[in-house]
Design goal:
The protein has one domain. Helix content is 83%, strand content 0%. The chain contains six helices and no strands. The longest helix is centred in the C-terminal third of the chain and has 27 residues, at 88-114.
């Protein structure tokens, strides 16, 4: 990995964060609405074939933020539809995102057990 790849990831990830902050401040939306908006945007762009070039350019800067989650779900659904037919519509997103969601649950639980908040 060279400096240009790191810079591209930083810029693309930063632009997603800046866009989310502008939406939050400009439209006074609840953060939950912005999260759903960004996941849906990533999913729609992925279905149209417009998100993969961004992933190819920005790497983790495009896959880690919320639109990247929408892209992951959509790609899983498209892959499962191709291999399993219409049932892939229901199973593809779960299969694609299961490892990341399981890791979030396990590490979240471990952190809650290991560290006690001061309050």
């Amino acid at each position: 990995m060279d400096f240009r790849e790191l810079l591209a990831a930083f810029i693309i990830g930063g632009l997603f964060c800046a866009a989310a902050q502008l939406v939050l401040d400009g439209f006074k939306l609840n953060p939950a609405y912005v999260m759903v908006l960004f996941v849906s945007m990533g999913s729609a762009l992925s279905a149209l074939g417009l998100y993969q070039p961004l992933v190819d350019l920005g790497g983790a800067g495009a896959t880690v933020p919320l639109p990247g989650f929408g892209h992951l779900l959509t790609q899983g659904v498209l892959k499962d539809i191709a291999s399993k037919g219409p049932w892939g519509l229901f199973s593809g997103g779960f299969g694609a995102a299961s490892a990341g969601i399981a890791a979030a649950i396990v590490f979240g639980y471990l952190m809650s057990v290991l560290f006690v908040p001061k309050g």
